[in-house]
Write a structure and sequence with these properties.
327 residues; alpha/beta; Spore Coat Polysaccharide Biosynthesis Protein SpsA, Chain A; eight-stranded mixed sheet; two-stranded antiparallel ribbon; 12 helices; 10 strands; 14% strand; globular
């Protein structure tokens, strides 16, 4: 294990906003790993939360070695919070773990051991079960994007070196929703020779936190993985050929099923007119990110009355209660 040096190689970056319960759980996990001998720094950036996040930061200051807590003076948004942690870590590598994700002690130990060898420019960790479980070495950007492009949208998937961080890339990818991925991919495109290791045996999952309900960015799928996803992928450097870009665009839905018919039904019931209006505003991007013909979504979202979905939902709820009462 990488616990023989007093100079940590990795800083775990946590950006947070009004998630004190989740933050406390993640920091408790990381503190327990340090107690078992792992060496790493932790940097938390709070985007001016209105809950007791600051108290949680103070709680762990003396309990986690190499711990830093910084807080914005006003709510600045996700990208500025990312920039806050990028500008304030000092180790060779950083990992944007976030405030709700889990890694086992053994997996983090593996990561630190590999970083200590200095063999690879960056690491990719498995954040989806659909990904391969073996290790793969990449040294060509089109091969990496073809296999990993849809997957590395997850910020926690990439461990990157400090020299990847620069102000030009901040501004280039601000507002895209994919700042961390953009910094990672463009740095690889700019280098002539590089080596990235995908660790299929290191799995990152969401923590199961009591009394905490995470609302993710997929609440707005047509905006985030319609318009923003299309604009982001097409803006990536020309070292990634156009066929690979088109493949990556559709791969995200192929694996995550964010635009599946069942998910459309569920989202319409939950968000009603907001969901319908979002589809209409971003409809022109949909042919680039889905395999299904557009008329199916027009039928489901534009033509079928919302009352129909509400009726189906009510029937489902009734049957669910009936089944529970019969047990």
């Amino acid at each position: 294990m990488n616990n023989v040096t007093n100079n940590p190689l990795l800083t775990i970056l946590i950006t947070t906003y009004n998630r004190s319960i989740a933050l406390d759980a993640v920091l408790n996990m990381l503190a327990s790993y340090q107690e078992k001998g792992l060496l790493f720094n932790v940097l938390v950036s709070d985007d001016c939360s209105t809950d007791n996040t600051q108290e949680i930061g103070k709680k762990w200051t003396s309990k986690i070695k190499g711990f830093s807590f910084i807080q914005t003076k006003q709510n600045m948004g996700m990208d500025n919070n990312f920039q806050n942690v990028y500008n304030n870590f000092h180790t060779d590598y950083c990992w944007l773990l976030g405030d709700t994700r889990y890694i086992s002690f053994e997996s983090l130990s593996t990561i630190l051991d590999i970083l200590s060898t200095s063999q690879y420019d960056a690491l990719i960790l498995r954040c989806r079960n659909e990904m391969p479980h073996e290790r793969i070495i990449y040294n060509e950007i089109n091969n990496l994007m073809s296999q990993q492009g849809w997957h590395i949208t997850n910020n926690a998937s990439c461990i990157i070196p400090k020299h990847f961080i620069n102000k030009y890339l901040y501004h280039r990818y601000f507002g895209t929703t994919f700042l961390h991925m953009g910094i990672f991919v463009e740095n690889l495109c700019m280098q002539k020779h590089w080596s990235v290791l995908y660790l299929g045996d290191v799995n990152i999952t969401e923590m199961n936190i009591e009394n905490f309900n995470k609302v993710g960015w997929t609440k707005h799928p047509f905006l985030n993985f319609g318009k923003f996803w299309y604009e982001f992928i097409m803006s990536l450097p020309n070292q990634i050929n156009i066929d690979i870009k088109h493949k990556v665009l559709k791969d995200h839905d192929r694996y995550t099923h964010i635009f599946s018919i069942s998910d459309v039904h569920r989202q319409i019931v939950m968000y009603r007119k907001t969901y319908v209006n979002s589809y209409l505003e971003n409809r022109k991007y949909m042919p680039y990110v889905i395999d299904k013909p557009l008329w199916i979504y027009d039928l489901l979202i534009r033509i079928t009355p919302i009352n129909f979905y509400m009726t189906l939902f009510n029937i489902y709820q009734f049957l669910k209660k009936l089944r529970c009462s019969n047990k």
